[in-house]
Amino acid sequence: MAEQKDMRLAALRRFATAITVLNVLGHAVLGFEQSLATPVTGVLVAYATEILLEAVESWRLGRRPRFLGGGVRGLVDFLLSAHITGLAVSMLLYANERLLPVAFAAAAAIGSKYLFRVGTNGARRHVFNPSNLGITATLLAFPWVGIAQPYMFTENLPASWDWVLPVIIVCSGTMLNTKFTRRVPLILAWLGGFVLQAAIRHFVFGNLFFPSLNPMTGVAFLLFTFYMVTDPATTPATRRGQIAFGLAIAAAYGTLMALHIVFGLFFGLSAVCAGRGALLYLRALAAQRAEARMKVPVPAEA
User: Fold this and answer.
1) How far apart are CA 37 and CA 263, in angstroms?
2) What is the model's pLDDT at position 120?
3) Residues contacting 287, CB < 8 A, separation 6+
């Protein structure tokens, strides 16, 4: 258990570093079109929401808040997840010059970690990928908000460098998910399922096959694949569970595309997380009832 915690913390530190570097380069070199106030707003709102809800949660449970007692290092480690979430929603959403949708996305993302939990009292875990749910909720609440255009990740790069950034993302993501999150089976299942759903839509609905695969060539798709889908806190740990999870996301995406519903990547992942959460809840409920029946005293025979 301690080893899993250490691995998760190591993964969070590296992910936080990677997404920070990407945002700095994005605004300085790559061509991010959001204002600098956008990532600042997302991160600050994520920090504030995380600290506030942790304080309320610790007061409710009668324990010490996790951001206290570890000094500066402990506070930084506690805020790693919020840091990643704030930068992710501000990087992937585009709300023109308005900051309210970004603030809403960050608050909704962090809030989902405290609102939607399943499991026993001793091991309750959140079921939704925070960044993805924040983006999903914002797209539904603010119909005029869109997703950042794929070209902005390489807009200012020379033509020969268009391949360098994707290669870096794939290599670093593969290393991270091989060594720390151990979610490579999930990635392979998701990618294979994505090709499969494109083939099914081609033969059943007449969609062109290769254009249906075009999203795979974008940097946003790579970030989604290697850094969002593989969240170890909200995905199965077993190989079989990871394969099922990845295929389910591809099936959800293909269904949404067949129904002409946009933003299928984010809506599909949210739907699969919701379904998995429902299954975990029913499993935990059945376990609690079975435990309660075992504790019922058997009456002695007369």
Assistant:
1) 25
2) 52
3) 120
